[in-house]
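Subgroup meeting minutes
Present: P.N., E.W., G.H.
Scribe: E.W.

1. P.N. recapped why we're keeping a running log of single-chain structure predictions: easier to compare across weeks, and new members can see raw inputs and outputs side by side.
2. G.H. added today's entry (455 aa).
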Amino acid sequence: MEGRKGYKFLNWARTYSCTPLLYFEPSTLQEIQELLGRAKRERKHVKVAGCGHSPSDIACTTDYMISLRKFNRVLEVDTQRMTVKVEAGISLAELNNLLPKHGLALSNLGSVDGISLGGAMATATHGTGGEYGVVSTHVLSLDLLVASGEVLHCSRTSNTDVFLASLCGLGSLGVVVSATVQCEAAFKLHQQQMVTTLDKVLENLEEHISACDHFRFCWYPHTDNVIYWYCNRTKRPVKKEGSWFWNYGVGYYSLEFMYWLSSFWSGLVPFINHTYYKLVYGVPAETVARSDKVFGFECLFKQYVMEWAIPRAETAKALNELKRWIEINKFPAHFPVEVRFVKKDDIWLSPAHGRDSCYINIVMYRPYGKLISHADYWAAFQKIVTAVGGRPHWAKDHTLGRDQLQELYPKFKEFAALRKKLDPTDMFMNDYLRQVFEMQSDEAAGRRTFAEVTV
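Output recorded in log:
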């Protein structure tokens, strides 16, 4: 098939871009195999791009880019076993619309459903819940197309090592072309929104996590204000509550304008954070809705994002350190700092590998696409979380290299060896993956210094 020249790839936040030599949208396995064969003959690198939501350059390349947006068919739905087999280019939003028709639902989801299943697996995308793992833990089997053109069927009983590596493969092992996912019977969630302080939520953290199926909270920097949510499966009738200020768009548009003003006068940020907490979120509320409608969390507008997974026991220490740094440096940190919880797993490069984890996500908005200074904030946060054994969310910014990463991941060396075995000519490598697998940390930090560049 013919590739498109001059295509410019932009991620959702418009913070990373690239112009691949050729851009392809295959719709069949044979077409993808032909593309890998062509890349091998012409000695080109290949990167698979999902929906472009990752706030990093993990999908960027200057050679061949393959989008699987047209490779998104549903291959099989088994209502008795409650499983679905799909092509990897299907988005989680498409799955969420399909599954209820068969009386099924995904057991857990992250905040955003506009991402492909393959992309969610590649970076160990996660939701929240003390007894729930990353999205990849619900995958029963997958088919991996490797550089040689062979398709490997992988599960816990077949090609087990490849399976446990591919469940968070960073796009470095090959092209995941299909996956079978364990679902559950369709369900509604009862979400209760409550308010507290940062000290109180941290003092009672384990009780909160065990009190419901899915617990998360958001802290508003420059304040002690916290909003937290309990989500439980329910048979209750659908119910929706919300602030008119937000429901009618006043909150969205005014917030973007206010943060734009703060880019000229940073002293506005504490006022904004406190005011929007009081006007929009800082009141008790509850919702009962279809599960995926509750799991979703609106991204508001374009933003820079950084997220790390730390041992759950280190949550209070890391957040208190972050709060102290913001206060001492008077840094105009935007809201919210989102905190979620994930059960440990055995996936080789999952940030939750071997330990119950807390994911902490920080943001700086880009009102009207404006560049907003964030490099100092990013560097300080990385220092705080790495001090307690933090592992980066693979889809987001970090400056770690091979030496640091192999200390954080017990199976890192095994993964690197398997990657080289499956891709001996480095067909699937790009600058992001060279940072991860080839650079020492000082080199990696030089490649990505959290430079404040926006496209």
